[in-house]
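Hi all, long-time lurker, first post. I run a small reading group and we've been trying to get comfortable going from sequence to structure in the token notation. Rather than ask abstract questions, I figured I'd post a concrete chain and ask someone more experienced to write out its structure so we can walk through it together at our next meeting. Sequence below, copied exactly:
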Amino acid sequence: MSRDEAMLTAAECAARTGLTVRALRVYEEYGLIAPQRTASGWRCYGKAELIRLNQWRIVLNAKGNIENAAVHPTDARLFGSMFGEANARESPSPAQRLASASEAALRRFVDGAREGAPNFAEMTPALAQSMRVQQHQLQTLNQRLGKIVAIEYRGSITETYDLFDVQHERGTMRRRISLTPEGAIASVSAILTGSGLTAGP
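-- Answer (accepted) --
Happy to help. Here is the structure in token form:
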């Protein structure tokens, strides 16, 4: 382990990424991350793990097996400062896009995914390509969750992402969205935080 690189404990990494410690272990079991170990055997997570964790989002079924996995296009440069101090705040800074613009874009993205008619013109080419590959899975998931009932702005991460808790008819997700300066959707990721979903169609 490099002495120059700051490392996070499993609990710190989980808090930073919005995942659970158990989810971190599942990611490791599937070979998606490889945390280093301290001399006493404790897992520790560095910048490389944070970048990978922010690229992958996995949906687990009730037995803990992978039901769906999604890779989100990312630029490693965006996550450099994510490893520093958390930068969430109650309201956006002047340099940041307005949360209302992010919320509106997120609503359109989720509604488009649920209806099977995403607006690719509103996305960056990389996200549009990723969305085309995952369109069926994302439509199925969003249909199972149902329509959006409420959205609550939770803050911003590194002036790049806006975080929202999104309540659907049959579940709740923490969703993160990034817009380009021109307003195109650059990245969207989500973690299921509460669900009334059951197995099956």
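A couple of things your group might point at:
The longest helix spans residues 125-145.
The longest strand covers residues 185-195.
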